[in-house]
Amino acid sequence: MVLYNPWHGCHKISPGCLNCYVYRIDALYGRDPSVVVKNASFNAPIKRNRQGDYLIPSGETVYTCFSSDFLVEEADAWRHDVWAMMRQRPDLTFIFLTKRIQRLASVLPADWGEGYDNVVIGCTVENQAQADLRLPVFLSLPIKHRNIICEPFLEAIDLSAYLSDQVEAVLAGGESGSEARVCDYGWVLSLREQAVSKGVAFHYHQTGALLLKDGKLYKIPRKNQADQAEKAKLDWSK
Known about the structure:
Elements: E1 2-4, E2 7-8, H1 21-28, E3 37-38, E4 61-64, H2 76-88, E5 93-98, H3 104-107, E6 119-124, H4 128-140, E7 145-150, E8 169-173, E9 183-184, H5 185-197, E10 201-206, E11 210-213, E12 216-219, H6 222-231
Parallel strand pairs: 1-4, 4-5, 5-6, 6-7, 7-8, 8-10, 9-11
Antiparallel strand pairs: 2-3, 11-12
């Protein structure tokens, strides 16, 4: 796994952004996270060593733009170069998440066609309103590999109308950080049931800092949130 952030910073657009971890981290360093800047690592996917080999080896999964939103407006001038690097490296799998799926059609490269085989797009929906707003657009677009991401998971969400063989996976996770909002374990179980019933893979990413389970509220340290989710053994695939 490789983390690749071609730019940094974002502006908040929906309830899921309220306690954004990028804002939380930038505050520690006195940075303004709403200012989008191009990173020095921008060309990382195509950088080579002295022997001419790519620094990111073939077969890696590249998690792209996790300190911003890949479709953020301020990065429009730079994004076409990232599309080109994705095209140049078909031996890598690029994954990016977005809360701005409505912008995708207007910023796709000319040769996108039905989608690049090596690009996975995750649409983030933190509540029912955002699911109903974003997912009809998401499913209408030409994308080869798509996931639905419910994180931070803020309320019960019914995805049943949007799950089909167009969607490869549903991922769920609670909110982390000192200001985290509660995630109800019942919501997670319901979402898993919806995914499994439609034959869609399910992954429970993290519990979040505050997990309500069987009427009891658990405060879970950040270091244990992924492990506790894994121990629940909710992950499922065909």
